[in-house]
Amino acid sequence: MLKIRNLISGYDKIKVLKNISMHVDPGEIVTIIGANGAGKTTLLSTIAGLVRTESGETLFKDTNVVKVKASDIPGLGCVMVPEGRQVFATMSVEENLLLGGHVVQKQGKQLLLELLEHQYELFPILRDRKKQLAGTLSGGEQQMLAMGRALMAKPSLLMMDEPSTGLAPLIVKEIFQIIVRLRDEGNTVLLVEQNAKAALGIADRGYVLETGKIIVQGPAGDLLANQDVQRAYLGRDRAE
Amino acid sequence: MTTELFIQYLMAGITYGSIYAIVAIGFNIIYNTTGIINFAQGEFVMFGGMIAISLLQYMPLPLAIALSVAITMLIGALIEICFIRWLKAPSVLRMIIITIGISIISREVAVHIWGESIRSLPYFIGNEISSIPVLGARISPQVLWVIAVSALMVVCLGIFFKTTSVGREMRACASNRKAATLCGINTQNMVTLSFVLSAGIGALAGCVMSPITYSQYDMGTGLAIKGFTVAILGGLGSSGGAVAAGLLLGIIEAFSVSVVPLAFQDAISIAILLIILFVRPQGLFGSKEAAGLSEF
Known about the structure:
- Helices cover 37% and strands 27% of the residues of chain A.
- Chain A is α/β, with parallel strands linked by helices.
- In chain A, the strands form 2 sheets. In chain A, strands 6-7-8-3-9-10 form a 6-stranded mixed beta sheet, with helices on both faces. Chain A has a 4-stranded antiparallel beta sheet with strand order 2-1-4-5, covered by helices on one side.
- Chain B has a two-stranded antiparallel sheet.
- The termini of chain B are far apart.
- Chain A binds chain B through residues 48, 50, 69-75, 79-80, 82, 86-91, 95, 98-100, 102-103, 105, 133, 135-136, 149-150, 153, and chain B through 165, 168-169, 171-172, 174-176, 178-187, 289-290, 292-294.
């Protein structure tokens, strides 16, 4: 699905990602964990085309997408749910969702309506709030809206950046259950999280990112048991 | 004040008010997709009128107006492509200064092409002295043209932004550009489109108002100030607010003539602008909620 080789990228002179190689297979949840400033968001932004790639390649379904414009990436089936939701605050919930369906619009109104209905089933709260301005929703509702909007594009790869930020634990649990459900329905998810425990809890595989490099990788269960990972990201000391 | 005089002032107010409203809506369209105020908006109105006047020598009036609107739209697109598009992550202030520069350049170009003479399109129906009786007062038919065309533009734009997917995408760019990109919307094209659209409606306004207000190379500055006042008064980005505020300002100006000398007319709109900016920056009709949710 997604294969990244020797990726280097960053902002102007500052290189944030130093030689990243990773891959995501169809139907799995892959998580990238790491501390603040490790480069997690930059990695997703680079894949999404928002940050320019310096060198290396990003193969999405066997096409190199490093030179593709950010606005053309969703059309290929790679859609990102950005950090901090980034909903269209001044527009209604339904309009937000319809905008998410921009890339499938040409395939007809029928499909758009079916997708809309599907999102309302997945997130019933959005149906109740469909006429409300998105900016007036609670944090959890906005996160659901951002996910629903991304899913409207019928993505083959859903990239999520820090969905748990600023949400109550109960809401985080709900969001993560939905991510699992999405995977069970055959979706592929690349999940970036600071909340390592929750992320590894649902993921199939994981990568640990530290100052722009991948330092550990493996099945999520192994990472949960890994002592270095435990000490650095799960808040448990070696002595325990 | 007699009823006839009252109606006369009122109609004059509504006429100028609709022109201000259209200029303000031009501001709003670009503001709504880019978050900037395009201070060259008045120049679009000037170009619309001037080009139509020049074309009139070669073709009938409706065709001259249509072609003039099309040419002005092209100018709008060129301005965006040459001056705005290539800016990477421009700040709001930088873009505003660029549009002021564009407005000065446009005026210079206009004075070189058309000179300083005052011109005008002929009346669409009848001539300077033909009039229609309205409640005892006598109204020029061109006044009705201005009001009708303005109303039609407002309704069409409203439908465009609310119900069409392109209109929705333009609003999305205004609301959150990054998110719009992540939805697969080409935001640069939307910005170009917003310049084309606002150039088009500005030019059309420039044509219908030309017989009454006349056209001159520097008419844009005054209009831009009035239009900006109206846009702020009505709440930036709100078309309905722009119409209400435009009519309000037009009517206040018209009636002010009966109280203070004509020369104070412009001072009144500037005074209103200042008062609004101090007291109610979100505008008379702008909602505080929406203002809090927008970025600029």
